[in-house]
Amino acid sequence: RPKSAVKNYQNQNIIVEINGSNVSHPGYYWLAYAWQNFLPTCELCNSVTKKRTHGQRIGKGNLFPVKNFRAVVPGEETREEPLILNPLVDDPSDHLSIDRTGLITPVDSSEEGKVCLSVFGLNKREALVTARKEKYDEARTLTKAYLVALEMDGKEVDKQYGKLKAFREGKLPYSMAAIQAIKDTVEEHHENIKKLNTLVN
User: Fold this and answer.
1) pLDDT tens by residue, 2-31
2) Gap between the Cα atoms of 95 and 81, Å rounded
3) Please, which of 103, 104, 139, 159 could form a disulfide with 181 given CB 3.0 to 4.6 Å?
């Protein structure tokens, strides 16, 4: 939550009622030193910018969209329903999914997913989409190699598994894309096994 002001998508101050008067939201000043209000993020996601988006504005800046109620005094923030995902309390996969092209879409029209896509420009930065696609392809190739190594009982099994496990635990960049690739590849493998079984049963 921004500490000194809260803006809307048009970069205008959010107007709230305090003591019977309509005023600009003062920001969540009481959370300025609360460690729970700090999360690591990349510069392009956090700062308002038009870099790498063909002139389209992205970045969180002083945005903090919520559903309905907005806090204006200490303690009220517990009543808010933020629309920006907090990975400490939200599972992003409940709201966002990724395909093999590197594009991200909201899960079941999730409002939180739509807001995050818009605020952070997750599909507007071509280099970001390309990097996710490359990671998807890498994980897919790695998963196929692992499945082959399993069948051949090769020495590469542990090595392949270690990297796949690192993706699954989110320890490598673009793990969301890699996890989806692993899932897709394993599902395809199971379908192929089913087809083979129809030939021997």
Assistant:
1) 999 999 888 889 999 999 999 999 999 999
2) 15
3) 139
DSSP 154: -
Query: Which residue, 128, 132, 131, is CA-closest to 99?
Result: 132
Scanning 43-174, the segments in alpha helix (DSSP H) are 43-46, 111-120, 126-152, 157-168
Judge if pTM exceeds 0.90: no
Residue type, 150: L
Helices (H) and strands (E) in the chain, counts: 5, 4
**How far is the CA of 172 from the CAs of 29, 166, 176, in angstroms?**
34, 6, 9
- Write out pLDDT tens, residues 139-177: 999 999 888 887 776 666 777 888 899 998 989 899 999
